[in-house]
Amino acid sequence: MFGCECFYRKKMDLLPLSDPEPFSLPAPLPQWPHGQGFASGKLNLGELEVVKISRFKFIWSSNLEDKKKGVTFYKPVGIPDGFYILGHYCQSNDQPLRGFVLVAREAPSKSEATDFSTRVTSPALREPLDYTLAWKSNDGREGSLEGCGFFWLPQPPEGYKSVGFLVTSSKKPKLDKVRCVRADLTDRCEKYRVMHSEFSFRVWSTRPYHRGMLGRGVSVGTFSCISDSIPGLELPLSCLKNLDPSLHGMPNCDQIHALINHYGPTFFFHPDEIYLPSSVSWFFENGALLFRKGDSVGEPIDVGGLNLPSGGCNDGEFWIDLPSGDQRKTIKLGNLASAKLYLHVKPALGGTFTDIALWIFCPFNGPATLKVGIMNIAFNKIGQHVCDWEHVTLRICNFTGELWSIYFSQHSGGVWVNTYELEYIQGNKAIIYSSRNGHASFPHPGTYIQGSAKLGLGIRNDCASSNFYVNSITHYELVAAEYLGDGIVAEPGWLQFMRKWGPTIVYDSRTELDKIVHVLPVMLQSSVKNIFYKLPVELYGEEGPTGPKEKNNWVGDERG
To answer: Per its UniProt record, what InterPro entries does this chain match (predicted)?
Structure first.
């Protein structure tokens, strides 16, 4: 019968497990201002209406010596009448329950934007024709099914797609337990993070392939799995697609301000930080200059950036630089009193989430410090450059208005951090730690190594609390929210400057680094050289960053 020998739980192992309570934020959510569909509990995707389910009932869990390293599979409960399951949920056991799956029904009324001449008349949702047994667990004994898990892939009718697996502890589920989605209402899906890999069976979380501000892929919250014993199931799932052009679940202006008032984080800078942030207007007022290629004399910049060339691309024709002399030394230090967060609000995951990117500006990025074991070597120039743009992104669930996660940008990359892993200063307001000199963002104080933390070799990112901080609740400016329409949010002139906020200066950093290597113990020299060769290119010269709107994540999704 079933001959796959993998995970197996004895029946007695299953008894202590209970249906878990989902994670909750430290403080209750407020009553959000009135709007369209934001925080209404349901979202219209065109021909589908979906609801987010965060309460689950236990089905099956993997059996490992350390149960905290296993995974558990759940089915959603508390499904509203008329809605249908699209797939089950998988959760790592070493984390608080923090997830969702969408359930769906055909929308009560068709989207007004639908072209009636081309409208598809077949139903949006249909039962599968059958199931494919993608994987099963037992102890290898014929007929012994106690404590086993069975993973079923719905076989969709022609013209339909499956968007999730079902898991049972015994027999094949009935066909009416799940729905497949009409193909034109789905989008391409991709594997995201490996949740479990054991023997011939692997489980991934999934996410839409088309993401970012313009992407319409909607995450269903389901998982994907494959077994080596069944070829052709590399990624048999799709995600949903939001065909509602109005994105009615996105927050309006009043709701955006309410979100910042409730979730606005505080940015803490290191107590030894020299190069503090400022507002862009303070930077312009205090001597910043616009340079043009071939002209050695810079032009003072209007306080609103109105004389900056707008549009175009980063073609090297223009750049911003600091003034000379004592004024240069002063402006490099920034002005904390004027500093503010610049907000870009945009759709995420097909408008089922809202991303609020909070950009912070520093007139200068200080030199780096190298950590080699117990030694710390402060560079004179390496790592420094004029101007620094850093950001974090709050991801808000549009079903409830709940903060879902925060993205911490860290030099050329970054990381998403779940809300249960954050520190909070008050209520649901998180703390952001900005690293000394480099201003990368981290969720906790400490020293983070850009290189090999295991070997203790790399560039230091030191974070700590101090009296140097910026509270985004009282110091912010909404600079862009394109989805609201033209003229709703007035974008400042400086936001349209697509060139570099700083000059390009190349110097022979390799020579300085080689000198450091030669004074190290022989046993460390090879490892340190390898770290150096992997360091970002900007450490080998000075190159000002482009502004927020020229970054890939302005339109695209965050990296990570």
So the answer is: Vps62 (IPR009291)
